[in-house]
Design brief:
The structure is a single chain. The chain has helices spanning 116-127, 139-147, 168-186, 197-215, 223-250, 252-259, 264-288, 291-305, 316-335, 343-363, 370-401, 409-440, and strands at 19-28, 36-40, 43-47, 66-67, 75-88, 91-100, 103-112. The protein is of the alpha+beta class and 452 residues long. It folds into 2 domains: 4-113, no CATH class; 205-440, CHAD domain (Alpha solenoid). Helix 5 crosses helix 8 (291-305), helix 6 runs antiparallel to helix 7 (264-288) and helix 7 (264-288) crosses helix 12. The longest helix is centred in the C-terminal third of the chain and has 32 residues, at 370-401. The chain is globular, with a radius of gyration of 25 Å. The N and C termini lie far apart (65 Å).
């Protein structure tokens, strides 16, 4: 976040904004179930550090604090000491520090209030030239994290759940808000030296978002959504290059080196692969720092505020059951001939399994129980086995690209051969996983039908 002097000017911003001291104290009474309290300007409130589970709460927002009575037993955990300035109506700059457990953390926030559409339009305009994104966590979570000597928790993680959704619109918006939070939480970890998690989880979040757009296409369509899907695709491609090299350097590459007992020619190939991975991470970092990435984030939020209208109020369960039925039918068609499929057909089957999984995970909450858990678990096993075969295919292509970049023909051939063996083993595992999935059978219930 830039300092106030670097922030973009608002058309109605005061020439010399008036500063006002700001102090916030966070407290909690003894007891595991005690809520987090906030004392600000002599007012006591209950605050939620994280969005409630399965709630429609967009990135950068939290439910408003609830009034609370003063609690003499509540003990201070942390406090914010700083100042705020009103730059314009609904536009406030907040700066200062949070103190807790002998530690301090600087805080700078630009707070926008008003009609959602107007707020998002203004934020998107500012983000063209400034690194402005929705805050990854609120002040209360930052204070609690500092008090407990831990990093702030991500607002959301993993796949979305639609346990409380009843309509198609409610399901789409709840899942979309969840996944946008996941993406914002994971992309800061897409940097060299931070490990592969950030890239992998960011890529999964984007895949799930793009799957959402396909799942709900009957009610969510139009030029704006298609433009956003194209932007998500570009981001996925930037992530994909880094992810492919991560997988290579964590799997096929070291496996080949171990099989050949540390051969120097394989070591040189791995060094060349490391240079390629570093280059992919550098390109990805530049993309994540660009206006194009910020435009993708804000466009998604802007579109979500404009609610879908084409049959969006229809009940969710029948919609989900019919969609799952179609995707399951397609996967069964490929699985029936699985032992004869070539690598290209297995890749298509992997995509079908992935599409079904990205639908089954959020919709499983509509039919809770062992059947749904068993099906999604075995579907994940199938996708993983098919993914290993695909990783082997990608590894062969990556090894070939290293020719003339420090890798010898012998090393490339060795990696290619090792990958081929890994692919065949993955096929066997995938066939076994498919048989287990067939035994589980679908968990969803189609609407009753009466023919006369």
């Amino acid at each position: 976040m830039p300092g106030l002097r670097q922030c973009p000017a608002h058309p109605h911003q005061a020439a010399a904004p008036a500063w006002r001291a700001e102090t916030i104290t966070w407290l909690r009474a003894p007891g595991a179930d005690s809520p987090l309290l906030q004392r600000r300007q002599r007012q006591w409130q209950i605050v939620q550090p994280l969005p409630p589970a399965d709630s429609l709460c967009w990135p950068g927002t939290l439910p408003p604090p609830e009034p609370a009575s003063p609690d003499a037993e509540a003990l201070p955990l942390a406090r914010f000491i700083g100042r705020r300035a009103v730059l314009a109506e609904g536009v406030t700059w907040l700066e200062g520090r949070i103190e807790a457990a002998g530690a301090r953390q600087r805080i700078q926030r630009l707070v926008l209030e008003g009609e959602p559409a107007e707020i998002l339009t203004l934020a998107a305009e500012w983000a063209v030239g400034q690194p402005l994104l929705p805050a990854p966590h609120g002040l209360a979570e930052a204070a609690l994290a500092l008090a407990e000597s831990r990093p702030p928790r991500p607002r959301r993680s993993g796949p979305p759940s639609l346990a409380g959704a009843e309509t198609v619109e409610g399901a789409f918006l709840t899942a979309l808000a969840h996944l946008q939070d996941v993406l914002l939480a994971e992309t800061p970890g897409c940097r060299p030296g931070l490990g592969p998690r950030g890239v992998h989880q960011s890529r999964v979040a984007i895949r799930r978002m793009r799957s959402l757009l396909k799942l709900f296409r009957p009610v969510v369509d139009g030029p704006g959504w298609r433009e956003w899907d194209a932007q998500l695709r570009d981001l996925a491609q930037a992530l994909g290059a880094a992810r492919d090299w991560d997988v290579f350097l964590l799997g096929i590459g070291p496996g080949t080196l171990a099989a050949l007992e540390g051969d120097a020619r394989i070591k040189r190939l791995l060094a060349a692969a490391t240079r390629e991975r570093d280059g992919a991470y550098a390109a990805l970092g530049a993309f994540l720092d660009s206006a194009a990435f910020r435009r993708t984030i804000w466009l998604g939020l802007q579109l979500a505020v404009i609610r879908p209208t084409q049959g969006a109020e229809q009940p969710l369960a029948p919609f989900a059951a019919e969609l799952l039925r179609k995707r399951w039918k397609r996967l069964k068609h490929a699985g029936a001939a699985m032992e004869e499929l070539d690598s290209a057909a297995l890749h298509e089957m992997r995509l079908d399994a992935k599409r079904l999984r990205y639908a089954a995970e959020p919709f499983a909450a509509l039919w809770p129980g062992r059947a749904a858990k068993r099906f999604t678990r075995r579907l994940a096993d199938l996708q993983e086995a098919l993914g290993l075969a695909n990783d082997a295919t990608v590894a062969r292509a990556l090894a070939t690209r290293l020719g003339g970049r420090g890798a010898s023909g012998f090393a490339i051939g060795a990696v290619t051969g090792f990958a081929a063996g890994r692919a065949e083993g993955s096929r066997i595992a995938a066939i076994a996983a498919w048989k287990e999935l067939r035994k589980a059978g679908p968990f969803w219930k189609l609407p009753e039908r009466l023919d006369l």
